[in-house]
Amino acid sequence: MIRMENVGLQYGHGPEVLKNISMHIKPGSFHFLTGPSGAGKTTLLRLLFLSLQPTNGNVHLFGQNATNVTPSRRAQLRRRIGIVFQDFRLLDHLTTWENVALPLRVIGKRVSNYKEDVTDLLQWVGLGDRMYGFPPVLSGGEKQRAAIARAVIGKPELLLADEPTGNVDPQMARRLLRLFIELNRLGTSVVIATHDHQLMKQFKAPRLELHDGTIEIIG
Amino acid sequence: MSIENRLIENKFSENRISEFHAPTRQTRATAPIVPAGSVTGRSLTIVVSIMCFLGCLTAGAVYLINQSAAAWFADIASEVTVQIKPIDNTDIEKRMTHVALYLAKQPGIKSVRPLSERDSTSLLEPWLGQNEAISLLPVPRLIALQIDRKAPPDLKVLTRNIENSFQGVTLDDHRYWQAQIRTVTRSLALSGIAVLILMGAATTAIIVSATKSALASNREIVEVLHFVGATDKFIAREFEKHFLALGIRAGLMGALFATVIFMLLPAIIRLIGGNAVTAAEIRRLIGTASLDPPGYILLAIVVIVIAALCMITSRYGVFRILHNRH
């Protein structure tokens, strides 16, 4: 699913954020990505999401070398990945429903084919009464849930989430974790970057721990 | 059935009945991903409308002139003039009669109309005024011939025969004037096309600049679209829709104002044309100055071209900017 070979990354002439990282994430696996603030968790996720190019080494996604791919190939690969950003990245002028439906709209699906799925998913993440609200009037937790719904609506093969439970209460955090677990059972590989030790205790999964730009796989 | 079970059974299928309460409010299925207001503002619409207005005026004016020129051309081409110069000690009226009778027998000539002495001298009045002295001048006499345009005579042979048969008689086939009209109308048409090209270039430059601004102000939307798997083509289409709508809206506004001008033009000419003689001269020059249906179709074509220009320019603009960003 994901294979990194001696991947290094530095921003401009700054210090190396990631150093010589090699790892393999198998299809259908579940990983937590942890490490102290500034360890490079978000950078690693951005590499996996192809919004950054490694300075050294290669990133393989879905069995293909994903380093220096064409824009159109990158778009095709991203359709197989769901991502939850720490800052949500919802579009303020679209309703919550429209934000969640965006990945399906982008691939050219007809509204009639996904209308119910989007509505059901929003009901399930507890945004049934907010689906026609706009992001600026949603709370942080509601935005978080909308962002997660947008990431999973397309049933991605790989789900990357950056602190997906950072803005929700423990009960909702458990519920969202359950969603990630169910998606994983269906075959989606999941990588969750988190500081939340309570969350990691609830589900036994290998941890990718980042320290000073290097990675250690625990469990 | 819970959403987890649905996920497990992969039941996110199409066309199934949900046990959840469907929302009563209609979803905005076609809500624009890129907000229209952030792409095409009012000032841009006004600028493109003005460009289209000027484009329509130019195209309409060139069309009117071409129409008038075609009418002049048809008139001139179907008529030739025979000129009989006065010769001392000869009866010019008798010569006129002989020449007219000769011409009437020639093939390809529909009618022969000898102009009276008064008609001939009156042709000089615009230059010399109404002057008794004109009657004392040796003014050549004229015979107007209407040519059968379906079976025209060989004018070279006719000229040679007349000149050989009669002394002091020449035939003017107006070729000089035809060439002059052709040159003038072609020059005007080329000037009009040059003006239209310049306007098109200016509109393109405006749209390129507007596309850059639109992409800059919607940078976050473009990023999110890329993150959810949108191709550059999809993103370009989202921007292109707004520019096409702008082109149509602004184009129609410009064409509407131009149509009003063309409808009022005859009245305006009457108002500024002064006396009846001047108005008649202007009418002779540019016809009735009102557009016919093909003329209005030409204005519609200008609108289509402006709208297409807006759409295509924005599409390539977005592609180029996104390509450079990659």
Question: Can you describe this structure in just a few lines?
Answer:
With 219 residues, chain A is an alpha/beta fold. Helices cover 35% and strands 26% of the residues of chain A. In chain A, strands 6-7-8-3-9-10 form a six-stranded mixed beta sheet, sandwiched between helices.
| Major sheet characteristics of chain B | 4 strands, antiparallel
Q: How many distinct helices of chain B?
A: 11
Helix percentage range of chain A: 25-40%
Overall spatial form of chain B: elongated
CATH architecture call of the largest domain in chain A: 3-Layer(aba) Sandwich
Uncertain stretches of 5 or more adjacent residues of chain A: none
Roughly how many Å is the radius of gyration of chain B?
Answer: 34 Å
What can you see in these coordinates?
The complex is a heterodimer of chains A (about 220) and B (about 325). Chain A is an alpha/beta fold. Chain A has two domains: about 1-80 and about 155-220, Rossmann fold; about 90-150, no CATH class. Helices cover about 35% and strands about 25% of the residues of chain A. In chain A, strands 6-7-8-3-9-10 form a six-stranded mixed beta sheet, sandwiched between helices. In chain A, helix 3 crosses helix 4 and helix 3 (about 95-105) runs parallel beside helix 5 (about 140-150). The longest helix of chain A has 16 residues, at about 170-185. Chain A is globular, with a radius of gyration of 17 Å. The two termini of chain A are about 20 Å apart. Chain B has two domains: about 35-75 and about 180-325, no CATH class; about 85-165, no CATH class. In chain B, strands 2-3-1-4 form a four-stranded antiparallel beta sheet. The chains are: A alpha/beta (about 220), B alpha+beta (about 325). The interface of A and B includes residues 79 and 131 of A.
